[in-house]
User: What shape does this take?
Amino acid sequence: MTSLIILAAGEKSAEVTNWAGRVGWVVGLGIFVAFVYWLMRQGWKWRGSLQSDLPELPGMPEAPGEARLTLSGRYHGSTTAGQWLDRIVAHGLGTRSRVELTLTDAGIEVVRPGATDFFIPAEALREARLDKGIAGKVLAEGGLLIVTWAHGEKLLDSGFRSDRAAEHTAWVEAITTMNHASTTEGTAR
Assistant: This one.
């Protein structure tokens, strides 16, 4: 037994933590994360400069008329129409945010707290549909309200998700009816 006590007292444990090595790894990892973030930001800016030909967003009209429908929910972004992964970032259209939509006879008011508000004129509306995804956001089938509209020379798809998904169908029907009425008026003239 005495030999065990002498043996245990004689050996010394190795140092458990190499603090200098650990600090080096943490600092290195922090620099790597910052570099990746910087690259992502540069990519976002580059995409915005490529889309600089997109005109300024229409502002709210002075008298938009009576609200036909309203919706509270989330704005998930805009893409080139038909290309659900080609995100539009110019003029703040790539910024996800809360949203308050109001459909009037003049068009759709898009009010986004903390982001740029914009207006989609009724004559710019092309269609509305239910879909499952838009640039970086995929939901269950029919989980997104996609509004297709003309802005300058481009057709855009803007994705919205209501806090109450049952509202989406009414929006699709109302926008389709508005679009059909304006098309009929245009051919009758």
